[in-house]
Amino acid sequence: MAKAEKAAAIAELRNEFESSSGAVLTEYRGLTVAQLKELRTNLGDNARFTVVKNTLTKRAASEAGVDEGFQKLLEGPSAIAFVKGDVVEAAKGLREFAKANPLLVIKGGVVEGQPMDASEIGRLADLESREVLLAKLAGAMKGSMANAAALFNALPTQAARLAEALRAKREESGETAEAPAAAETPAE
Question: What angle do CA 152, 157, 160 make, to 5 degrees?
């Protein structure tokens, strides 16, 4: 590979690291071209899965400010899924493909600039999708607002009931609701 080609490849990888919300590093040893094509199709537009050269990727990751821990994972045949959208969805897609094709090994990754090992990527894949989490949050907020509205509506109702109970009690005991007459002060 010529020096200009290497520089272009490094610049492209650095751009991918900088513009992606996450990158998941895998080992693809033993997967066929058809299986890799299937994986790319399963990831869809959410992620771009590409086979990389470790030395060029280390340099690009360094230039992009990616942690040294991620760079240490670049051993053996490596491929990276650069995620442009929801990292959780991409992690789920990779994990599901790895279950069906055990030759794909998830080594780790970087999400929003923070390095993650394989177990953390697995925990990320266990999360529900962004849309589901937002829907749950909206439901919880709506429930809280409904509870607050019910509480605010209950206060005047309870005050009215209390006033009515006091009025009824006074009527039963024969008291009047009139204010007692003011005591006259002697004239000087």
Answer: 135
3-state secondary structure at position 44: helix
- Which of these ranges, 1-5, 31-35, 145-149, has the smallest mean pLDDT? 145-149
Asked if the model's pLDDT at residue 98 lies above 60, the reply is yes
Sign, CA dihedral 99-105-111-117, equals: positive
Q: Please, what's the largest Cα pairwise distance for the chain?
A: 118
Separation in Å, CA 118 to CA 24, 25, 113, 169? 9, 9, 16, 72
Pairing state of beta strands 47-52 and 78-83?
antiparallel
CA-atom Rg of the chain in angstroms: 33
Mean pLDDT for the stretch of residues 158-180: 77
